[in-house]
Design a protein that fits this description.
The protein is α/β, with parallel strands linked by helices and 327 residues long. Helices cover 31% and strands 15% of the residues.
C-alpha cells in the first residue's frame, strides 16, 4: 500500500516522527504540492494525506487508485467531500489533538493584551527604564483578569478548556453553543444566549466551527451589542470575524483589543485591515503547532488508516463508512 502526503513540511519540518504512518505502508512525503501536481502525485496513492493542499472535484474525478483521503487537521474544507463520496472514498480528519495547546495559546494572547509583556520588554531593552530614573513605570496600565467575565462562543473540548483556564484566573464564565449540556462543575458559570453573552462579557473567545450559520458571527451588528472596550480572541477560524468591522471597532475603541491566531485569508494580503488596526496581537496560525500536538496528528492519522483497513473507519466526515479493500 502506498501512502502519499501532499504537504508534509508544515506538519513535520523534521522534529516529529512519521513512524506511525510509515509502518503501515510505503510512505512518500512531499513538502508541498502546487495545484498542477495534485493529480500526478495522487496517481500513486492508495491513501492520500493533505493538510492544506486543496483537493477539488476536478482532481478527485481523476482519482483511479485513491481509496482513502485523510486530512492532517480538524478542518476539512480543503477537500471536496461530496466529490469523494461520489467515488466511495472516505474522508477522515483528526480531532482533539491539541486541546490544551490551543487553549493555552488563547490565554497567552489574553495575557499579552492585558499585561503588555512584549511592549514593556522592548521598552526596557531600548533604555527607557534607565532614562526614567524611577523604580518602575508602565506604558499601559496592566489589567487584572480576576472578576472579569469570559464569554466562550463554542463549547466543545477547546472551548471548555478555555473556560477552565479562565476560571483558574478568577473569571466568571459564560458559554454559548447550539446544544448546551454537561455544564462544568466550577462556579460562576452559566450557558447563555448569544445576545446575553455579547452584552455581558469583558472578554469574548471564539471556539466554534466555521459554518454558514457562524460565518462572520462577529460583525458590526454583534460588535454594537458588546461592552465598550471588550477584548476579542479568535483561535478558531478567520471567517468567524468580519475583519473590516473589527478593524473599525478597534480604531474607535469599541473593541479594546483583538488577539487572533487566524485570518480570513492566510497568509494575509497587505490590504487586510487588521494588519494596521491598533491594539492587535496577531500570530501566524500557530496555536496548534507544538511538538506534542503535531505528533498527535500523525498518531491519530495512523489510527484512522488502521481502522479503515480493518473495515471500521472512524472520524469520517463525508458519510462513506464502507471500506474499499486495498490492493
Amino acid at each position: 500500500m502506498e501512502i502519499v502526503v501532499l504537504d508534509g513540511a508544515i506538519l513535520n519540518p523534521g522534529d516529529v516522527d512519521w513512524g506511525p504512518i510509515s509502518e503501515i505502508g510505503e510512505l512518500r512525503v512531499h513538502d508541498e504540492t502546487p495545484p498542477g501536481k495534485v493529480a500526478e502525485r495522487a496517481a500513486r496513492a492508495d491513501v492520500l494525506l493533505t493538510n492544506k493542499t486543496p483537493l477539488k472535484a476536478k482532481d478527485i474525478a481523476g482519482f483511479e487508485r485513491v481509496k482513502l483521503v485523510c486530512v492532517l487537521a480538524t478542518g476539512y474544507n480543503v477537500v471536496d467531500i461530496e466529490a469523494c463520496a461520489a467515488k466511495n472514498i472516505p474522508v477522515c480528519n483528526v480531532v482533539a489533538y491539541g486541546v490544551d495547546d490551543v487553549a493555552q495559546h488563547t490565554l497567552a494572547m489574553l495575557l499579552e493584551i492585558c499585561r503588555h509583556v512584549t511592549e514593556h520588554t522592548e521598552s526596557v531593552k531600548a533604555g527607557e527604564w534607565k532614562k526614567s530614573h524611577l523604580w518602575c513605570y508602565w506604558k499601559k496600565t496592566p489589567v487584572c483578569l480576576k472578576g472579569l467575565t469570559m464569554g466562550v462562543i463554542g463549547f466543545g473540548s477547546i472551548g471548555r478548556r478555555v473556560g477552565e483556564l479562565a476560571h483558574a484566573f478568577g473569571m466568571s464564565v459564560l458559554a454559548h453553543c447550539p446544544h448546551p449540556k454537561n455544564p462544568p462543575n466550577y462556579s460562576p458559570f452559566s450557558f447563555a444566549s448569544l445576545e446575553q453573552l455579547l452584552t455581558a462579557s469583558d472578554v469574548i473567545s471564539l471556539h466554534c466551527p466555521l459554518t454558514p450559520q457562524t460565518q462572520e458571527i462577529i460583525n458590526s451588528t454583534s460588535i454594537a451589542k458588546m461592552r465598550d472596550g471588550v477584548i476579542l480572541l479568535n483561535t478558531a477560524r478567520g471567517g468567524l470575524v468580519n475583519e473590516a468591522a473589527a478593524a473599525k471597532a478597534l480604531k474607535s475603541g469599541k473593541l479594546g483589543a483583538l488577539g487572533t491566531d487566524v485570518l480570513s485569508v492566510e497568509p494575509p494580503p497587505a490590504s487586510n485591515p487588521l494588519l494596521k488596526a491598533p491594539n492587535t496581537v496577531i500570530t501566524p496560525h500557530i496555536a496548534w503547532a507544538t511538538n506534542k500536538a503535531r505528533q498527535n496528528i500523525i498518531t491519530l492519522t495512523a489510527e484512522n488508516i488502521h481502522r479503515w483497513k480493518q473495515g471500521t473507519p472512524v472520524n469520517v466526515v463525508n458519510g462513506v463508512t464502507v471500506a474499499t479493500p486495498c490492493r
